[in-house]
């Protein structure tokens, strides 16, 4: 089945899609991105992702490429053309195409937009989640504005590769105080020794995870104790449970950190319950 990508105003076959050699995203990582989970052919957590997209663009002073209504139409068309029922849709917006110069183009150029969509095997993912996964930890070495969802992801890519080489699915960054900030592509959570859910507050240098935000609502509705409070690597290793959240990972249980088993080394009841509740909520609210 042929795949299609949206590139600067038109849909083209995925294998023929290309951006200009002087796209500032390609040359300077001068751009932002968003990823929506797709359930039943619809966008999950749509409002949260749009809000974060507009904020990221505004923080970098990149013009909005189109209205939210227009962008929703294009995203849905990407999903339709690629026959995605369960999957992910990726959006990237760069400052545009201009002669290479660190300063912004003057006069300004139109933003460049790329959208791709792909299917995932939800059954296989669920089976993997039921077994639990591993994470590793590594020193925080990213820039000071991780709250912006920028395409400048080299430290994240290196962290992900290090995790893969050690048989893990994610790497948790740890700051100078020994506190976990977040994962290379996810937010980090634990159920601490007292049974309380904990995740880093967004005043720290972390991304304002949309899945994280929705899950906080799910947790509140479930009446579970939660605190937006940092935790150390030692606290995480001594926790009852651990998990990560993100558009791709949803709510994924973690059963070991740096090779140390969490609890008895099996997926715990809280993470399992929250995964089910989140997916139910995401499906029901998808547009």
TrEMBL record:
Gene3D superfamilies in the record: 3.30.470.10, D-amino Acid Aminotransferase, subunit A, domain 2
Q: Write out the entry's keywords from A to Z.
A: Amino-acid biosynthesis, Branched-chain amino acid biosynthesis, Pyridoxal phosphate
Q: Which family does it belong to?
A: Belongs to the class-IV pyridoxal-phosphate-dependent aminotransferase family.
Q: What does this protein do?
A: Acts on leucine, isoleucine and valine.
Protein name as it appears in the record: Probable branched-chain-amino-acid aminotransferase
GO cellular component terms, alphabetically, are: cytosol
Identify the metabolic or biological route this protein is part of: Amino-acid biosynthesis; L-valine biosynthesis; L-valine from pyruvate: step 4/4; Amino-acid biosynthesis; L-isoleucine biosynthesis; L-isoleucine from 2-oxobutanoate: step 4/4; Amino-acid biosynthesis; L-leucine biosynthesis; L-leucine from 3-methyl-2-oxobutanoate: step 4/4
**EC number, as in UniProt:** 2.6.1.42
Cofactor(s) in the UniProt record? pyridoxal 5'-phosphate
Molecular function terms in GO for this entry? branched-chain-amino-acid transaminase activity
**An annotated GO BP:** branched-chain amino acid biosynthetic process
- Kindly indicate whether the keyword Amino-acid biosynthesis belongs to this entry: yes
